[in-house]
Amino acid sequence: MSTINLFKPFKLKSLNLKNRIVMAPMTRSFSPNGVPTENVASYYAKRAAGDVGLILSEGTVINRVASSNDPNIPHFYGEESLAGWQHVINEVHAAGGAMGPQIWHMGIMENHHSGWHPAEPFEGASSFNKPGFANGKAMNETDIAETILAYGRAAADAKRLGFDCVEIHGAHGYLIDQFFWEATNDRTDIYGGKTLIERSKFAVDVIKEVKRQVGEDFTIILRLSQWKSSDYNNKLAKTPLEMDAWLTLLADAGVDIFHCSQRRFWEPEFEGSDLNFAGWAKKITGKATITVGSVGLSGEFLAAFRGESSVPSSLEELTRRLDRGDFDLVGVGRALLSDPNWAQKIRDDRSAELKGFSREALAQLV
Ligand SMILES: Cc1cc2nc3c(=O)[nH]c(=O)nc-3n(C[C@H](O)[C@H](O)[C@H](O)COP(=O)(O)O)c2cc1C
């Protein structure tokens, strides 16, 4: 097995990466009142110094009163939070890295365990976060129009602060995904409908607004997942044909890179082919794609939240698919959360030094 293709440079519009390893976005909740601290800056700078090609920030929320359910999740708006992010990107660049924020609106959420809640009700496509659980209100036309603008504003701020790209969080059952999913979108206006294509209008409008505010040359990544945290087996696109129509629509709206979230990257997306989600997305759209999900680790991340530990595992299947051209970039979550030098250890074949992942790693920023 050779990892040589993992360490080839990658260039696309504003992105100029030294290798194909992408730090996956991971919420850490170490930003009191939404402001990223010095510790947050040094956490990301260590991954840059450790030769991660592209760092995607933890989800950072856009300027809507109810875009977050956690006061320690960073904002991507407001003077103090943006000054915090300015410091983050300066430190990452000084350490030789590249980075984009993952801009996020959570949509309808459960209340935070601390009892904290935003000053207005949660807002979503409908009042539902999953079948049978409502906790907020369906957005009206004005809410939707203002939210679309807020995504655009956050992306424009990312560009102004000097970030290398922006990622729109369209996955995992949060706001944009609540529009995609029929179980959480019962709207009868232009943002709802029986088909996935109809329910994609909100995402399309967000992407177009982001593009309008950042221009042609700033790389836009869209993160998608078929699965929801309340339904691992869900498929928004149930067939290759449906996926073709969906991703083509999103690509035409202005996506440069599809970040295809799976819990285990080796799982085929549809019967009859071993292609995974990122493989299909690249085949369908011709766009660059990022794969992700249990790279270099034995167990998947949602089980890790429940306390299951993971040990390092081989990259053989990953490199087979990368060498075959299935995807361009490789997202790595927990392995990089616990070890800032993971990329260097892989490059230099220091496998004996690789660490696993256990839930305790979440307690601090290392
Ligand atoms: C602590 C933690 C926080 C996460 N937060 C986010 C997030 O803010 N946004 C997101 O899109 N995915 C989030 N994820 C999912 C990761 O980006 C990634 O897809 C997942 O961990 C699978 O990659 P891995 O198996 O390499 O860890 C999170 C995962 C972890 C472990």
From TrEMBL:
InterPro entries in alphabetical order: Aldolase_TIM, OxRdtase_FMN_N, Oye-like
Any matching Pfam family: Oxidored_FMN
Domain NADH:flavin oxidoreductase/NADH oxidase N-terminal span(s) in chain numbering: 5-351
Example GO molecular function: oxidoreductase activity
One GO term describing the cellular component: cytosol
Protein name: 2,4-dienoyl-CoA reductase
